[in-house]
Amino acid sequence: MSPYLKVALVVTTFCGVCPADASAELVFLSSGRHVSVKSHRLDGGSITLVLPDGGEITFDQSLVTSIAPDEVPHPEPVTEPPATAAAAAAPAVPYADLIDATAARHGVDPQLVRAVIQVESAYQPSARSRKGAMGLMQLMPYTARQYAVKNPYDPTANIEAGIRHLKTLLQRFELSVALAAYNAGIGAVERFGGIPPYQETREYVSRVLGLMRSHRPT
């Protein structure tokens, strides 16, 4: 079954049995990570996740493999004043100021960082993978230690370390290979002399590059 059909079937089931604002959901990503969200909605080929803090993030539906109920519901966010027309036209990116400032300080393209975060964790600071990767940019324990991160679930420390690590890879490899190294490790890239023949890694590189280009101002 394709990811689209699987998501569509799950969505149909959920909508028939529970109110949209009564429970939380676990969204499983094709990268192997999963995140807890308040709810979701579909729009063509895109899916929008409503985050526990009330923010939202929209990305390609193909990044989602399945959605399941989360036993722990999220509280309702505090009601905000109506958004202005300009704000409504462009949904805010979570941690945008932090990402932009940190990326600028280290000379890394902020659109690249946003794309990496979106694919790695869908902007969930509490995300954790089966392999132990943690936080927004999914730092592995040894990477967190390398950059002296005491709390990898702290967005500021995590994004700082993630961008620094990404910068070292960009200084060593061209963009697509650097992304492959971020996903599969430097050892795999060196062993294969470039992007390793792993389906997950090849899809990861393609998705990050696609998201980065789609976010470029026109």
In terms of DSSP E residues, the strand content is 5-15%
Shape: globular
Number of strands: 6
CATH topology of the largest domain: Lysozyme
Main sheet record? 3 strands, antiparallel
Look at the structure and give the mean pLDDT.
81
What is the topology, as strand order, of the major beta sheet? 2-1-6
Radius of gyration: 17 Å
Order of helices and strands: HEEEEEEHHHHHHHH
CATH architecture type of the largest domain: Orthogonal Bundle
- Counting H and I runs of at least 4 residues, what is the number of helices? 9
Can you give the helix content as a percent range? 40-55%
Structurally, how many domains make up the residues?
A: 2
The CATH class of the largest domain is identified as Mainly Alpha
Measured between the Cα atoms of the first and last residue, the distance is 36 Å
**Poorly predicted regions:** 1-22, 85-89
Structural class: alpha+beta
Q: What does this molecule look like?
A:
With 218 residues, the protein is an alpha+beta fold. It folds into 2 domains: 68 residues, SH3 type barrels (Roll); 119 residues, Lysozyme. Helices cover 46% and strands 15% of the residues. The protein contains 9 helices and 6 strands. The chain has a 3-stranded antiparallel β-sheet with strand order 2-1-6, covered by helices on one side. Strands 3-4-5 form a 3-stranded antiparallel β-sheet, with no helix packed on it. Strand 4 and strand 5 form a beta hairpin. Helix 3 packs parallel to helix 6, helix 6 packs across helix 7 and helix 7 packs across helix 8. The radius of gyration is 17 Å and the shape is globular. The chain starts with a helix and ends with a helix. The N terminus is likely disordered.
